[in-house]
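It would be a great kindness if you could assist me with a short task in structural biology. The matter concerns a single protein, recorded as an amino acid sequence and a row of backbone structure tokens. The record follows directly beneath this note:
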Amino acid sequence: MNEASLNFLDVQSGETDAPPRCRILPLPYEKTVSYEGGTAGGPGAILVASTQVELYDRAVGDEACLQYGIETLPAYSPPGLAGGDYVVALAALAEKLYDPERLIVGLGGEHTITVGLVRGTRRALDKPLTLVQIDAHADLRDEYDGDAFSHACISRRLLDEGIENLVLLGTRSVCPEEVRLIESDPRISVFWADEISADSSSGYLQRLRQLLHGRDVYLTIDVDGMDPSVIPATGTPEPGGLSWWQARAIIQATAETATIRGLDVNELAPREGLHAADFAAAKLTYQSINQVAKARGWLDCRQPPGANG
């Protein structure tokens, strides 16, 4: 299957009456992976798997993408650019693409893509922006292996650049440097994976809603935030992650209480024979977009009684 010619969900231009409100941006960037490689293949694998995803999403009660429309942009992979230079170039592209009436969805690639996407979104939005990050790791190191733009440093770079708040969800792997920063910087809130798992009343969702109410948010989903039983194909898997339903509930709560200005899904490292991981990442991407579309009023559909997706 020719990935370069694929549209996300196999939705073709012209299937909706209005111009598409969702633009998919594949970003096959891979320069600083620290364990297993393969993230450059993530965007293509998600596009391929998405052609098998049912368009009907019970959580919103319709084939939602046929209402808001999807445009899949060419993969952005400028030759020779890495680290800070890549981030500068991607930020310029994200700023150019930003439209308050549309949603840009980045498909990674390693997590470094988020720095460029958030930087460009913040410049275009010209308002305070909170980063909501589903991730096994805090990504708060000042540098890793001598690289300040490593995938292990993305949250630190964005804090340095002045994001309003950082909300980490599903975190379960940190170093002492990161713990000290979490304890000292009031902008950082952490919903640890073990605390989410132990919270049978889902009170953490109420706290999340209170924290995000009325904010402008960028949502980044590192697939290693999920438990490896859901998405095992990632470069740095950590046991004890979010379940499918916990991740879905977090995304829904975020979309309903904040305004999601952009999102990305990253760090899928496809493995032969693990197609379930690619499919899960594709479906999570689609259902995340649908929650944004529902919150923004892009959908004209009735949610079925008891629907939870």
